[in-house]
Structures are given as structure tokens and as C-alpha cells.
Design goal:
Radius of gyration: 19 Å
Strand content: 15-25%
Number of helices: 8
Shape: globular
Pfam family, one: Lactamase_B
Order of helices and strands: EEEEHEHEHEHEEEEEEEHEHEHEH
Bound molecules: zinc ion
InterPro entries: MBL_superfamily_lactonases, Metallo-B-lactamas, RibonucZ/Hydroxyglut_hydro
CATH class: Alpha Beta
CATH superfamily: Ribonuclease Z/Hydroxyacylglutathione hydrolase-like
Oligomer: single chain
Keywords: Hydrolase, Metal-binding, Zinc
Distance between the termini: 26 Å
Family: Belongs to the metallo-beta-lactamase superfamily.
GO molecular function: hydrolase activity; metal ion binding
Length: about 350
Amino acid sequence: MGVPTPGLSIPDSRSTVSVSVIDSTSKIIAKTGIVVQPHIQGHDEFNCPCYSFLITHPASGRKVLFDLGIRKDPENFAPRTRSFASAMTIISERNVADILGKNASTITDIIWSHHHFDHIGDPSQFPPSTKLVVGQGFKDEFFPGYPAREDSWILESDYAGREVQEIDFNASDLKLGQYSAFDYFGDGSFYLLDCPGHTVAHMMGLARTRPTSFVLMAADCCHHGGEIRPTQFVPLPESIDFNSPRDLTRGARRAPCPGQLFVDVHPKRSRTEPFYELINPRDLDTVREATRSQRKLDEFDANDDVFVLSAHDSDAAEVIDLYPATIDDWKDPGKDWKKKLHWLFLRDFQVE
Ligand SMILES: [Zn+2]
């Protein structure tokens, strides 16, 4: 047992949204050492998907996409983004608009969690009536897009002819957990959370899929479970019951697996601290800020009513149902996806 889980101060509401997780067909393969430290045996590379989330608000009929994965024509990235992406292997077969087909024309809002290529996709594939929503400080930092500004990360065509809304987290005193929050539909069904550190204007989304259960789209607050688990709230257990077909293909992981095996490969031999620390030797202030944001996420991840899904969770697809299904009932006893997913990242580590 860990220390008691802190309250999150999420206001009561009966209003809900429906959430589907879209596999954007994008993939990123990158050395773990460009994001986290220290190296842990067996986990040399991230090989991860890029999820886009479809949020449907029944009360208004609005349909919102939270992130768009990688555009299928990366040769058309803004030059600065192309150079940034060259440090990794990227694959993208389809745009989210292609996956949605005729439903793409019904999307009313696109929310960018942040400006990186693996989240912004190609908004020009959506109708001009589709609004683009960005985090606080985004326009100052990134507008105008390329080619109007040679060194911009984004393209002018990403937003040309459409409304762009920048979220103002100072507009209210609302705080959920320790994050500043914005009540997107004004009825408590969907919140944006200000999550500084990974980049300027980085946001997460918190969707109420049932009156008392939530999906937290954690964007790039973390890229791997080892950045946020274990914690003082949810320590590494004595034994871990992996229960997934992939366990067999990876071999040597019979259930239940003693937790001690993972304590032995933990850099601090700890049951209550995450395996990884963030790395960015060029900007220590940013790393400190991003780490603070991760510690705030711990409180949500420890809460039984909140299902945390990062944009790049490489284990989620074998546990959850993907688009066109919804994940609204993730907490149903027959599913219990939060528990099933929580420790799956440990399989990336090689234990004796
Ligand atoms: Zn990302």
C-alpha cells in the first residue's frame, strides 16, 4: 500500500463526453537516451504509436480531435520541424482525416496539445469551419507559420482561413489537482489542463466519460510508464500479474512476476520512485518544469477514477478498444483497463 491518494478537486457534473482513441498510423522510433536517463537494460528504443483522441460532446453535437499524429507527407513539414524530426525514424501511412473518411467534415474543433510534428498532423484536410485550439502563449511563440516566418515550426496552411483559439488559463481560478484548468464546454464534461515543461503551450485533456470517471489524455507529459511509475501513492507491488498475449511473445515473463526483479533493475532500487528521469542537457530549467508537471500527473495516475493515456503509450493498443469503439466504459469490471495497463511498461526492461 502507498500513501493516501490526494483529492483532485474536480467539480461534480452529470455532463459527459464520449472518447475514442484513434491509432493515427504514425509511429516514432527513437533512442530512449534522447528523452530519459539512465539507460535500463533491454529498453534501448522507444517504438511508439501516436494517438489522436476523438471527443464527442452530445449536448452540443461538437466533435473535437485532440492531436492529429504525424502528417502522411512529412516532406511537407516546415523546415525547422523537418530538421527536428531527423533525429528519429518516423512512419505515417494515413492522415487522421483519411481514417475518419466522410466523418472528417463533421469535426468542429482540433486541439493541438503542443506544436511537435507528431501531434499537429495536417489540419488543412479539415473544413475551414473547423476551429484550431492551442495552448497559452502559442501564438506569440509560433505564429506566423512557415513560409511567412522562415524558422517557424508550423505551417501557415495549418491555420489559414480558420478560427484559432488560444486557451487563457488565467481566465479563471479553476485548478484540478495542481494543474490550472479550462472548462472547455462550460459544463464540466471536458477540461484542458496547463502542463508546462515539455514545450511552450503544452496541454493535456481531461474527459468525463461517466459522471465520476475520467480519461486523462496526457499528451507528452510522459512518453513511457517508467517516467511516472512507481510512486509513493502506487508503489511497485510484491508480484505483478502480466496478462496479455504479448507477454508470451516476449518470453521469460511468466505471471505472476516477482516485483523484486524490477526493483533490481531500478536505477535507485526504489519501489516508490519512477524508473526514469527526463533529460535535456541544453535546457535544465525546462527539464525541471517538465518534471514538476510529471509529479502533478502522479496524483491523477494514482486515482482509481482517472485513466491516464499518454499520446505514445506503446502498450495501450493491446488493452483498450480503438476507434471507432469508445473507451467510455474503461472502468467496467469486465474491462478494468487502467489496472491492466498500469505496469505493462515493465516488460520493456530486461530482468534476469
Ligand atoms: Zn509526442
